[in-house]
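User: Please work through this fold.
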Amino acid sequence: MTRAFGPGVMAPLVTPFKKNGDVDIEAYTAQVVRCASAGMGIVISGTNGEASHLNAEERVAIISASRAALDKAGLEATPLLVGTGGNSARETIKLSKEAKDAGADFAIVITPGYFAFVMGKDRKAIADFFIEVADNSPLPIMIYNFPGAAAGIDLDSDLIIELSAHQNIIGVKLTCAGIGKGHRISRHVHTAEYKKAHPTPFIVMPGFTDYMLPALVAGSDGVITGTGNVIPKTIVHLYNLSRKALTSGNPKDLEAALAVQDIVSQADWIIVKAGIAGTKYALTKFSSSGGLDLGGYVRSPLPQVTEATKKMVDEGMQESIALENSL
């Protein structure tokens, strides 16, 4: 079936590894269904999913198992956005083709950072990479701008606006905390002229939830957030309250959205500081899993969660977990 990609909130899922290093497919698919049932969109093999630690066979197995689990749970309409970024355009195109065959609907592609010392400031080289991938990928492409995972390469709004003209590029994730950048891109892609030339909506998604409400005010379409692994219902709740506040114009609706944004901003900061290992710890500790370890271990060279991080998560997530459990 053809699945739509549109506004909303999405969780880039962590990949639970067993103590022996294997992927825990049963725990992974349980988390897929848990998040989708809460109204979250699903992102597979992103930064939080330790995509760089997965081999090709593991990537395919995760995608196909997730698609099967969603279909079995009656969530057939939930699309899968899958990370397919490689160190070259050729490898990225190959991974995109494999992802489609496994059941992916859309691909999210990060700027390759290994040769940042050569092409990091070469605007044409970066644009040519995304155009080559978009020209040859069987999946529509979302650009992933995350300087921290791309050796510092940070795409500016001019370049993203230029790339948004490509018919197979359908959005951008901004894990750069650039609310002004998002505003400029949103303003461009929401014009009648752009929509006429690019009939497929171009989706602008921040990569942090701590400023979701301000980002929506600035024209963004939602958020892709690692915090959604732990408190998916709360993130969806904030999105719905924020949309209501923006459409109703009622000060009480804005007040309600701000109250939840306050809680989510604190939780998001805790998860950002906790990192992937801390996110996995929080997921395992606070989520009902039917006996499954939804978080699991990380793969080397990432360090396992420390006692200090556990303490920070235990103390810092209490308010958001209470809200999550009330929904």
Notes: The chain has one domain: 8-326. Residues 251-286 form the longest helix (36 residues). The CA atoms of residues 93 and 136 lie 6 Å apart.
